[in-house]
């Protein structure tokens, strides 16, 4: 990010221009509020089936891809998610061209729409958002994780991105996608995001942990030489320009290989996941990263599922939710910071920097750590 001095100079120039045109410039506080509000667009929604050849030669793999996009439509049937019908997303709405693409990977036992509040927010601000349903690793299939899902997830992300390139002219979404891609993921999806952003697997170290009985039981369950060969190959996708990681797990599978990530990372964590205030030095992902522009965001008092719709939907008796925050307010704060980060990285939007450098306090429970 640019220095505060450069930012203030740019603000002064922009303010002079706006005043000359008869418009009052937004204050940093007003801009922060705006980031957490719905954008100028409505939200369209469709799903697609995606099929691709598995990397292990074991036939084809199929999954459902959820897609949110900007629209000018204001009426139509609401999108149906697992937790109910959306009050914002409209099925098969006529699309507007998207500014860029965000792709989201859900967590273990999650589902494509489990963080729909973020997807809808970004679509309302002009982004196309993709979220694959990671077949075999959703709430429907239960808690079992086998070795293959640790590599299949990243191939799902690749196939989802491939599926929207070069759409035929008669496709509803033709002309919607744009070039830059933001990778975003929660929990096991955060791990998936690190793989797609270039983190290198420590295959030998992970095997040693398996042999010692201290490795991830899922990763170790069916680990063989063929699986190891897939893990050794880089999963970095050159289309990805930044990573938004939410409560990511499984860092030991990468170890120091996290340092191979070469895109800016927004590392989002929550205190309820074992990240008390001032604990950045104990965060294995954060301490392994090497990017000068990386930023760590800690939600003090927050929980693992603060990044999903489940807490606001009333599932707090079954999952980890915050005991100190209003859930709707949690979502507004998360929306604000995610959008600010994306605009800063993709558009070099200087107006969002007071949010990201802490000049504007969006919420007192946010702890920011920069390099």
Brief summary of the model shown:
The chain is an alpha/beta fold and 371 residues long.
Explain what this protein looks like in three dimensions.
By secondary structure, the chain is an alpha/beta fold. The chain has a single domain (4-370), classed as Rossmann fold, CATH 3.40.50.1820. It has helices at residues 4-20, 28-35, 116-124, 147-163, 188-196, 203-212, 217-220, 225-232, 284-288, 327-347, 353-356; strands at residues 42-53, 60-71, 78-81, 84-91, 101-105, 128-132, 181-186, 240-246, 265-270, 295-299, 366-370. It has an eleven-stranded mixed β-sheet, with helices on both faces. A hairpin with a 6-residue loop joins strand 1 and strand 2 (60-71). The radius of gyration is 20 Å and the shape is globular. The termini are close together. Residues 1-20 have low confidence and may be disordered.
Mean pLDDT: 93
**SS strand fraction:** 15-25%
CATH-defined architecture: 3-Layer(aba) Sandwich
Order of helices and strands: HHEEEEEHEHEHHHHEEHEHHE
Largest sheet: 11 strands, mixed
Q: State Rg.
A: 20 Å
CATH class (first level) name: Alpha Beta
Low-confidence stretches: 1-20
End-to-end separation: 11 Å
Write down the domain tally: 1
> Largest beta sheet: what is the strand line-up?
3-4-1-2-6-5-7-8-9-10-11
Tell me which oligomeric state these chains represent: single chain
Query: How many strand units?
Result: 11
- Helix percent band: 25-40%
Q: Helix segment count?
A: 11
CATH homologous superfamily identity: Alpha/Beta hydrolase fold, catalytic domain
What class, by secondary structure content?
alpha/beta
C-alpha geometry? globular
If you consult CATH, what is the topology? Answer: Rossmann fold
């Amino acid at each position: 990010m640019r220095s505060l001095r450069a930012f203030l100079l740019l603000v002064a120039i922009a303010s002079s221009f706006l005043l000359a045109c008869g418009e009052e410039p937004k204050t940093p506080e007003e801009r922060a509020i705006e980031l957490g509000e719905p954008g100028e667009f409505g939200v369209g929604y469709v799903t697609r089936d995606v099929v691709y050849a598995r990397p292990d030669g074991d036939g084809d793999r199929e999954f459902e891809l959820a897609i949110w996009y900007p629209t000018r439509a204001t009426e139509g049937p609401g999108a149906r998610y697992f937790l109910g019908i959306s009050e914002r997303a409209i099925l098969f709405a006529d699309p507007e061209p998207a500014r860029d693409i965000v792709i989201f990977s859900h967590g273990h036992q999650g589902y494509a729409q489990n963080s729909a509040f973020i997807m809808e927010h970004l679509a309302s601000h002009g982004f196309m958002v993709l979220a694959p349903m990671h077949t075999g690793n959703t709430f429907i299939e239960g808690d079992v994780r086998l070795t293959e899902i640790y590599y299949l997830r990243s191939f799902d992300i690749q196939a989802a991105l491939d599926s929207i390139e070069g759409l035929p002219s008669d496709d509803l979404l033709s002309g919607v996608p744009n070039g830059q891609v933001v990778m975003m993921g929660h929990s096991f999806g955060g791990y998936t995001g690190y793989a797609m952003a270039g983190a290198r697997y420590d295959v030998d170290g992970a095997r040693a942990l398996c042999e010692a009985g201290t490795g991830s039981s899922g990763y170790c369950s069916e680990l063989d030489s063929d699986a190891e060969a897939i893990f050794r190959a880089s999963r970095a996708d050159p289309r990805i320009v930044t990573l938004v990681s939410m409560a990511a797990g499984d860092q030991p599978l990468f170890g120091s290989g996290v340092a191979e990530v070469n895109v800016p990372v927004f590392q989002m964590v929550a205190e309820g996941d074992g990240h008390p205030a001032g604990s950045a030095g104990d965060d294995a992902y954060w301490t392994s990263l090497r990017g000068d522009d990386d930023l760590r965001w800690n939600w003090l008092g927050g929980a693992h599922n603060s990044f999903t719709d489940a807490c606001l939907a009333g599932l707090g008796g079954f999952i980890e939710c915050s005991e100190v925050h209003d859930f709707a307010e949690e979502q507004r704060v998360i929306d604000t910071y995610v959008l600010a980060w994306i605009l800063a990285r993709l558009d070099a939007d200087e107006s969002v920097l007071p949010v990201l450098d802490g000049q504007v306090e969006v919420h007192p429970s946010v702890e920011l750590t920069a390099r």
